[in-house]
Amino acid sequence: MIIAVANQKGGVGKTTTTVNLATALAATGKSVLVIDSDPQGNASTGFGIDRRSRDASVYQVLLGQIAAEEAVQTTRIPGLSVMPSNAALSGAEIELVDVERRSHRLASAIASLGHHDHVFIDCPPSLGLLTVNALVAADAVLVPMQCEFFALEGLSQLINTIERVRSSLNPRLSLLGIVLTMVDRRNRLTENVADDVRAVMGDKVFKTEIPRNVRLSEAPSHGLPALLYDSRCAGSEAYMALAREYLGRMQPHPLPRPTTKAA
User: How far is 259 from 138, CA to CA, in rounded Å?
Assistant: First the structure.
């Protein structure tokens, strides 16, 4: 299963979700590949991959300069590998403009790799060509969503993009689910937004919620997923619960169309 972890809004927990969900699944004995498709390279950092060792990266793969397998690095987590990103990826959208089948470059790269039980693509906070490449390659989309004002409006824009990609480029693409992140149930706005999202999206929203947790924020600075940094913190326990729920809903769901009422 190839999952694009996407949301055009920044700071909603895409990378944190990618890193920790992938780690949780690898802990169950699954073979997992994480593709860092964000020029910021935070997913690579989250697995402890030094920036000086990222010369072979997603950028070179998309441009056809190296084979996909040359860019894949193992991690300290058994069964989990990463195709890292570097700053050069920020120019890929311009460089790919005149390339044939530019929206299918990542899909072709993944197809050339050996089998993995789960492939997660950490997308940049935009709906540009890098994200489109991820959506074309993916079987389904996982959407982390911070409980904040206008959350549903941003989700509507993302779903419109998913629908366009599905209708013209990737007919198998579906919505796997929405994960509510940075949840603080003591905050009335958080509670209202969470309730609104669940009312509109129904069972497309994962039951598991990811709480605001300082250990989740600290872990990347140590080059570790939170599950290795502090396996007993509330954030790690939430991602383990999310992994169990994720495995239980591996059949993608049809796309709903949310309203854009204020969250």
Answer: 25
Number of neighbouring beta carbons within 10 Å of residue 262? 11
55 is written with which tokens?
A: 């010369």
Report pLDDT for 255.
Answer: 57
Tokens representing residue 85 in the block: 């990103």
Tell whether the model's pLDDT for residue 187 goes beyond 90: no
Structure tokens at 123: 């997308």
Instruction: Please name which of 89, 79, 77, 20 lies closest in space to residue 51, comparing C-alpha atoms.
Output: 89
- Residue from 135, 155, 139, 121 nearest 12 by CA: 155
DSSP class of residue 261 equals -
pLDDT digits (tens, 9 = 90+) for 70-107: 999 999 999 999 999 998 998 888 898 888 899 999 99
> What is the bridge-based pairing of β-strands 80-83 and 73-74?
antiparallel
Question: Which of 203, 206, 213, 217 shows the shortest CA–CA distance to 237?
Answer: 213
Tokens of 116: 């993995």
